[in-house]
Fold Acetyl/propionyl/methylcrotonyl-CoA carboxylase subunit alpha.
Amino acid sequence: MFRKILIANRGEIACRIIETAHKLGIRCVAVYSEADANARHVNMADEAFLLGPAPSKDSYLKADKILEIAKASGAEAIHPGYGFLSENAEFAKACGQQNIVFIGPPVAAIEAMGSKSAAKDIMAKAGVPLVPGYHGDNQDPAFLAKEADNVGYPLLLKAAYGGGGKGMRVVWKSEEFADALASAKREAMAGFGNDKMLMERYLTKPRHIEIQVFADNHGNAVYLAERDCSIQRRHQKVIEEAPAPNFTEAQRQSMGEAAVKAAQAIDYRGAGTVEFLFDEDGSFYFMEMNTRLQVEHPVTEMITGQDLVKWQLLVAANQPLPLEQTEVSIHGHAIEVRVYAEDPDNDFLPATGKLTYLRQPEASRFVRVDSGVVENDEISPYYDPMIAKLIVWDEDRDRAISRMLRALDDYRIAGVTTNLSFLTSLVEHPAFVAAELDTNFIEHHQDTLFAPATKENNQALVLAALYILETQKQPPAAQEPFSPWQFSHGWRLNEQPMQQLTLQHQDHSHSLQLEQLQDAVLVQLDGQQLRCHVRLQGDELIATLGEHKTRVRISQYQDTISVFIRHHRYDFSYQTELHTDTDMVEDSGSLTAPMNGTIVAVLVEAGQHVKAGQTLVVMEAMKMEYSIKASIDATVKEVFFQAGDLVQDGAELVELATEES
Ligand code: MV4
């Protein structure tokens, strides 16, 4: 076995790999960018080396520098994780030339899966089922049109070198074919520099089911059951589970054997994933093969009891697979959700910022959290904004869903917007509970998934006010050193039993009156009166509001108070003397670029009146489009960019003048 390996990655997957390596007594060399100098993966490793500035191309994609560090540090092998250099054949080749083991498949296997049409040729010859269609070299539009009529409609055009749904077009009837082909080709050429197309019968309600395969250098190859990854948005997986619901043992075996055949067809080694489209009638078709460890591998680990990173290290060190096919068994049900810094209510715009408060559900045999961050870390615009993966296991799917809902409630993050509430909406959705899965799930259930905000606002508001009252009572020594409560507010509870509090929530001001009685607090809000009792224990607030006793968690960072009720977070800002009212107006009146990107469209002009929620500017970043919306009713004062302009993270895009200013 290796004595020392280098992990050419960051975040949760780097941490995940280090954990197993350490269990096996292997020392770990981390690499990091300037943005990650204090990252969790760096602190977990035995030693770490700086790669360069934050952007990936200057750091985690610097193949030569990484190899140099591996050599200099005495690492015998490199684990690439996923993303970055993990499926880069050039890098795998360079490792071999430097006598460093690439913990992944042979170069030829990576190359064989690089082109979709070439991959399909190989799979067809190996007898792996393919969606009926055409994937030949003749790209003459007239010839393709004739082939299309043979394939039948609806039909799907796919870019041979594409990915992420780009260069893909559904064609519903023959008359639409020519236009669709031309437009798919344009998109493919712009995106991948190659406009070769293939065509398939379009499956309207497929599931994405993939098989985990493993092969060693001694002729052994096995499959480790399947994962259902049908819940995706814009070709990004959101929820993955294993085993696939309503999937029979016979289906598992036939898809598993097809996947092993696929791996053997390209002389595969190590961990791989063969993705299939699973049609409503039970037939399945090869989609593509991923030649790396996948993000969602933990669900397979939870149901098989195996450590897939350990398997990777064994295979890379020339040892045989730990199990034969007949020894692989599955038990129970596992579900993974990807916790992201993003705003589901604003087109899933990636969010950046400091994780000012971070509490994760407690790990157990039922709950696993694969995370690469700690409290006070920054989610930067440079990398994928995934915060962590939350994985649960239980005896069956329904119990696993209960575990997940509880774990999501126990996952509390303040400082950045997250998808935690959205994940809860998904997991508790009746169609998800009933396992009515297909790749259009999120789009199809849009109306019920993006429900308007709940009615707990007032409850959260009262709790935030009671929290402020309680923190004022506590002696300064018990408070945080930089808390604004350290400053004098001009009044103290003991001296003045009645006080007025104003809290801001999403650009709305709320005023409450609090009166301290002998044994209770009287709260007045919107003309209503509520008798309350309150006690604060650490970050836990135990309160009785009228006749309802609740227990919630609260965090505070500077003047923002976050109240966590179930999976919801309510943020309130409290105007201390440190912040004036004019600051607030300016804050809500200026709209800034959430990340580096390009302006795609400017939809408003100076002088125009806009409504809260109206899209002002559309920008593109990380190959996705984002809408910048007005948060308030206002008049556009100035627009600073036009379509085509490059903008920096934080650049002011539009200035709004509010009615008051
Ligand atoms: C398909 C399909 C339906 N019919 N092929 C999307 C990305 C690419 N890897 C393959 N994709 C699809 N191929 C045929 N013949 C539907 C999809 C598809 C999809 C597949 C898996 C997971 C999510 C998806 C979302 C939309 C479309």
Remarks:
- The chain is about 25% helix and 35% strand.
- Residues 249-265 form the longest helix (17 residues).
- Residues 483-495, 576-587 have pLDDT under 50 and may be disordered.
- The longest strand covers residues 221-233.
